[in-house]
Structure formats: structure tokens, C-alpha cells
Specification:
By secondary structure, the chain is α+β, with helices and mostly antiparallel strands. The protein contains five helices and five strands, in the order ααβββαβααβ. β2 and β3 form a beta hairpin.
Length: 158
């Protein structure tokens, strides 16, 4: 599969899991993203050279008077495309991200968590990464909370 089809493929993955985006529990979201990364390879991304990774991000988002807490799982893709012109051959890298973002109304417990991120650089690291996600203080803090919003997006990053 090519990177440009990743959103459609993830939506199919979600549908086949019998889950609905708007009602996803955080544990289901973790399982979906980990399974999708484990099972679905992206042909135009070089896995061996950090072209296909998972990113976990968490922390407060300032929103004026009402900051929200963001919990994000992202598939980070570097698409390499080779071009040939009069000057020879050259490679253009473009970065694309499939992001699943949960936002929560902030509370004292969420406010006390520092923001940060963790990377899974290769599927061989997936078991350790899964353990980190499931036991991370951010995951434990939101596990039983109702998300204010859940967004799935696919973006080209400049």
C-alpha cells in the first residue's frame, strides 16, 4: 500500500474492528494503532531508515481560559520519491502523519502531567512500546474519562 492511501486503509481497519471512532475507548485506540502498525506496511516508506514510525504525544493544549489535555497516537511516514531530470537523479522526502487525537477537559491530575513524546522506531520495538503506552501516567489518567473530542486526520507536514 502507498502512503497516500493510509487514511482510507485505517478507516477500513477501524470498520473491520467493529469500533466507531466517536466512541473509541483509549485502550481500543491503542490496540487499533498498534495492530495497524504491526500488520500494514507502507510500500513507499523505508522502514529501515526511520520512514515508518509511531509517535505518542501527550500534554496540555492552551485554549484560552479552558486548556484541554491532548493524547495523541501518530503514524509518522517519510515518503521517498526519486526524480530524474537534466541535473541527474534526486530524492524528495515528504512527511505525512496519520493522527488519532483524544482531547479531554483538563483537571488537576491532567494538569500535573508534563507534556512529552515517545517514539517507536520499528515494529521490532512494538511490544516495549505497547507496554509503555498501557502503563504511561497519561494513559492511566484518562483511562476512565470521556473524551471531549476524538479526531482522525492525515496530513502532509512541511
Amino acid at each position: 500500500m502507498q502512503a497516500k492511501h493510509v487514511l482510507d486503509r485505517f478507516n477500513l481497519w477501524l470498520e473491520q474492528s467493529d469500533k466507531v471512532l466517536e466512541y473509541l475507548a483509549i485502550e481500543d485506540a491503542i490496540n487499533l494503532m498498534l495492530g495497524f502498525y504491526r500488520e500494514i506496511r507502507i510500500d513507499d516508506c523505508d522502514l529501515a531508515n526511520d520512514g515508518d514510525m509511531l509517535l505518542f504525544q501527550w500534554g496540555l493544549e492552551p485554549n484560552g481560559l479552558n486548556p484541554s489535555f491532548r493524547y495523541n497516537l501518530t503514524r509518522h511516514l517519510v515518503v521517498e520519491k526519486t526524480y530524474v531530470d537534466d541535473d541527474g537523479e534526486w530524492i524528495d522526502d515528504s512527511v505525512k502523519q496519520l493522527s488519532l487525537t483524544f482531547r479531554y477537559i483538563s483537571n488537576l491530575k491532567l494538569n500535573s502531567l508534563n507534556h512529552g513524546n515517545q517514539w517507536c522506531l520499528h515494529p521490532e520495538e512494538l511490544e516495549q512500546f505497547a507496554h509503555l503506552l498501557r502503563t504511561h501516567p497519561a494513559t492511566l489518567a484518562i483511562k476512565h474519562l470521556h473524551a471531549q473530542s476524538i479526531d482522525l486526520s492525515f496530513k502532509h507536514i512541511e
